[in-house]
Write a structure and sequence with these properties.
It is built from six helices and eleven strands. The protein folds into three domains: 16-83, no CATH class; 86-129, no CATH class; 134-236, Zincin-like (2-Layer Sandwich), CATH 3.30.2010. It has helices spanning 59-68, 70-84, 125-152, 188-203, 209-218, 225-236, and strands at residues 16-21, 24-33, 40-43, 49-54, 92-95, 98-105, 108-111, 114-117, 158-162, 169-171, 176-180.
Length: 238
Amino acid sequence: MQIRLPWSEPAKTPRVRQLRIAGHDIPVTIARHRLARRYVVRVAPDGGLRLTVPRGASLSGGFAFAARQAEWIAREMDRQKARAAPWVTGSCAWFRGEQVPIIVTGARATMGQEIITLRSPDADIRAAIETRLRKIAATELPDRCQALARQSQVAVERVSVRNQRSRWGACSAGKVITLNWRLVQMPTSVSDYVILHELMHVRQPNHSRRFWREVETVCAWCPHPERWLRKNGRELLP
């Protein structure tokens, strides 16, 4: 039985193909990687797709994999479009676990109790609000991390807050904890879970069973943080 895949199959394999998603032909750029262990498909910032194929694996298998991810790809494209849309009155921003409505009046944006003065009435609202949130994070997160470290009897060298694009936090071999400023957009219980997760890496610099036992010991009070992150985390990342 011959199965027709949703792209044309030319005589020679090009570096770019077309995959039909939600009624649109989307360009797919192929990238072979000798260290890749599995097929990976990502939505690129330009709206196209990037398909990573392990060395020695078939391209047809890679396209079949991408075709099976069509629903996820369509959702991710919608998410990226919403992420790129300008914020105006009526838009919502995540803050402390809630989607807080934004009100713009002249050169001022209000988000809950936060009032942000804009440089001009046509300023980038998202950039202004995210700048405010990053300042809040730079003040609150290091103090919270140090408090949880004391409670857990973990010694850390330093805590920094950064604009990480693909992770919520990190722990270096030198016991430096790095936290994503977007933790202030999460519920406190979830951001605490992320911080404690990184603190436990001071004790166990891996993801072994011992590490997860350490996490369970200090996070028994936190209800389903991973579930919240899986459901809402992608909305927070760029």
